[in-house]
Specification:
Strand order of the largest sheet: 2-1-3-4-5
Helix content: 40-55%
Number of helices: 7
Distance between the termini: 17 Å
Number of domains: 1
Number of strands: 5
CATH topology: Rossmann fold
CATH superfamily: Flavodoxin domain
Length: 186
């Protein structure tokens, strides 16, 4: 079975994007598609980026745990809110902490906003950052508009059938890239 980690990028109080991370965890487990772990950046409490992990003389246990989670995951789903047209500093901080760990890692992006544009303004800048370090960003996206109306606090969507249909396509694309990468490594 595949190992998929979900990065919940917001560290804000009252954050809503975490609802989508919970949804994906439930969806993947209920459909027996993967072993799932949520990497909640709010729990890691990283210091502001000063250096890549490999150059830090005394990395924290959280840094080493994060690096291990990214390394051992077959694929990653990044769930990020859009803040003023960009993704949160907490996510940029976490991405920049690592380098080799991202190389050829299949990554799906789910964007979230309170408004109607579903966080789509963040996609290009996040893709570019991940591409620059060699990640395999899948072409499928999972934008979520009006988060407070579309998902409850436990990750249950208001339109289960429609959301599951979109998730099936998105997750299918991620799994395809995971399997393609595994075949290339043989």
């Amino acid at each position: 079975m595949k190992n998929i980690s979900i990065i919940s990028a917001s560290v804000r109080n009252g954050r809503n994007s975490h609802r989508v991370a919970l949804y994906f965890k439930n969806y993947l487990e209920e459909n027996k598609l993967a072993n799932v772990n949520i990497i909640d950046l709010k729990e890691y409490d990283f210091p502001i980026f000063e250096e890549r992990l490999r150059f830090i003389s005394d990395p924290t246990a959280a840094m080493l745990s994060f690096a291990n989670e990214v390394t051992t995951a077959d694929g990653i789903i990044v769930v990020t809110p859009e803040y003023n047209g960009g993704y949160p500093a907490s996510l940029k901080n976490a991405i920049d902490l690592l380098y080799a760990e991202w190389k050829r890692k299949p990554i799906g992006i789910a964007t979230v906003s309170a408004g109607a544009f579903a966080g789509t303004q963040v996609i290009t800048s996040l893709q570019f950052s991940l591409w620059k370090i060699g990640a395999l960003v899948i072409p499928a996206m999972f934008p979520v508009a009006t988060i407070e109306k579309t998902f409850d606090e436990n990750g249950k969507p208001s339109d289960v059938e429609g959301t599951d249909k979109r998730a099936k396509s998105f997750i299918g694309e991620l799994i395809w890239w995971i399997e393609a990468k595994q075949k290339m490594e043989m």
